[in-house]
Design a protein that fits this description.
The chain has helices spanning 2-8, 12-21, 32-49, 80-89, 130-142, 169-176; strands at residues 54-57, 73-77, 96-100, 115-121, 144-152, 180-186, 197-203. The chain is of the alpha/beta class. A seven-stranded mixed sheet has the order 3-2-1-4-5-7-6, sandwiched between helices. It has one domain: Vaccinia Virus protein VP39 (Rossmann fold). Residues 1-7 have low confidence and may be disordered. The termini are far apart.
């Protein structure tokens, strides 16, 4: 499967930029009841935990964001087209900012790209290359002051479509960021066709 993918797949960033540029969306998970459930979950946690700012690693086309209730928000995405879509869609919203990023053109040792909560909404299983996954996870946790929220599945299953590669990401966190503790896991309702669960991490003081 990996050899087939390597021949057919040109890379994570290239795939998503091409998809958005051709008029594609962030996918079914960012629309309808799936998007509503995800928004309800994160909105409730943001309110309950007193989160003051959110940095989102993978804002996509902005449809999921349209349901969000965050005091202050920074959306990052490697696709320039997706970022432009969000800039236009939320141009009158002074609480939201957007920025394109790619691993080889972003360095933030001074810690400007930080939020009270760092968010990853069904992005991890779209990170095909190992080096892209490692960079993404590192940036995600290093950009969080207090909390990290991940919506994803947590299995090692490579038998997927070319733009998906499912990963057991909780093992990465245990190994690479042991100061972060899994506070909660929330599985989707039984009547909702969603493969992802929510994972809430808190920095261990």
């Amino acid at each position: 499967m990996l050899q087939v993918r390597k021949r057919a797949f040109k890379g994570t960033t290239e795939y998503w930029e091409s998809r958005y540029a051709k008029g594609g969306t962030s996918g079914a998970g960012s629309y309808g009841r799936q998007a509503e459930w995800k928004a309800e979950t994160v909105n409730d946690w943001v309110a309950e935990l007193g989160v003051t700012s959110v940095v989102d690693f993978g804002c996509g086309d902005g449809n999921q964001l349209s349901l969000a209730k965050y005091p202050r928000y920074l959306g990052l995405d490697p696709s320039a087209t997706a970022v432009r879509m969000c800039v236009e869609r939320f141009r009158d919203d002074k609480t939201k900012s957007f920025l394109q990023y790619t691993p080889d053109t972003l360095a933030d040792p001074a810690g400007w790209l930080r939020g009270d909560l760092a968010l990853s909404m069904e992005v991890i299983f779209h990170l095909i290359e190992d080096e892209v996954f490692e960079d993404y996870m590192t940036r995600l946790f290093d950009s969080a002051e207090r909390y990290v929220v991940i919506c994803s599945n947590d299995t090692d299953d490579d038998e997927q479509v070319p733009h998906e590669r499912h990963r057991d990401f909780t093992r990465w966190v245990e190994r690479e960021r042991p100061q972060w503790v899994l506070e909660r896991r929330l599985d989707p309702p039984a009547d909702l066709d969603v493969m992802s669960s929510f994972f809430l991490y808190k920095r261990n003081a």
